[in-house]
Amino acid sequence: MKRKLETIGLCIGWFAILAQFFLMFQNRQTDILEMVIRFFSFFTILTNILVTLYFTASVFKLKLIPFKWFFSKGTITAITAFILIVGLVYQVALRGVWQPTGLQRIVDELLHTIIPLYVLIYWCIKVRKNDLRLKSFLGWLLYPVLFIVFILARGHFSGFYPYPFLNVPEIGYEKTLLNISIVFATTLTIFTSLILIGKIIIKKQTKI
């Protein structure tokens, strides 16, 4: 059952990522190099790649050094938290910004809704939840920190900001920093919630 869920996750993930790349390539208004950089400038894309690489490593039991990291304790819980952030931020802040149609709408829902929910369900029923502690995940905050630093630095020189709530020229540094603070607070809340859910699940399992 676990392998089947991981195989489905692998297929959905790679389809959504590659389809989004194709759509951006097809509709690009910049040169190819800039388009590729912009593609990888979305937290949505980076996090969905992490999710899909995890499923890929699990299905094919990839034990090489780049993939061994996915089997470290707490890795899938951290990835689950970040993909939930992707979904939550989209539903709250971005869904009303644009109305995609056709294939773009399907891909959009996969990346921001279906995959986050799928990973949460997978985490709830198939991931070991022993020894989940908040301090174990604090190092994971380096991922969004580096992302934010890169986006703000590159945006300063290129003028491209992938998300309106990070668009400094449009909303100013004060509002941008407030938005970043809200996202980080939400991330910590999700980490804490997953830890609590994990403890509840373990308690129920020990009673059976």
Describe the structure concisely for a colleague.
With 208 residues, the chain is mainly α. It has helices spanning 2-26, 32-39, 43-59, 65-68, 75-94, 102-126, 134-137, 142-158, 168-207.
Distance between the termini: 20 Å
Average per-residue pLDDT, rounded, comes to 94
Structural class estimated from helices and strands: mainly alpha
User: How many domain regions?
Assistant: 1
Give the percentage of residues in beta strands.
Answer: under 5%
What is the helix/strand order? HHHHHHHHH
Rg value: 18 Å
**Number of helices, counting only DSSP H or I runs of 4 residues or more:** 9
Describe it for me?
The protein starts with a helix and ends with a helix. The longest helix is centred in the last third of the chain and has 40 residues, at 168-207. It has helices at residues 2-26, 32-39, 43-59, 65-68, 75-94, 102-126, 134-137, 142-158, 168-207. The model has no long low-confidence stretch (mean pLDDT 94). With 208 residues, the protein is mostly helical. It is globular, with a radius of gyration of 18 Å. The chain crosses the membrane at residues 7-25, 37-57, 69-90, 110-125, 137-157, 177-202. This is FAR-17a/AIG1-like protein.
Structural descriptors:
77% helix; mainly alpha; 208 residues
Write the layout of secondary structure elements.
Elements: H1 2-26, H2 32-39, H3 43-59, H4 65-68, H5 75-94, H6 102-126, H7 134-137, H8 142-158, H9 168-207
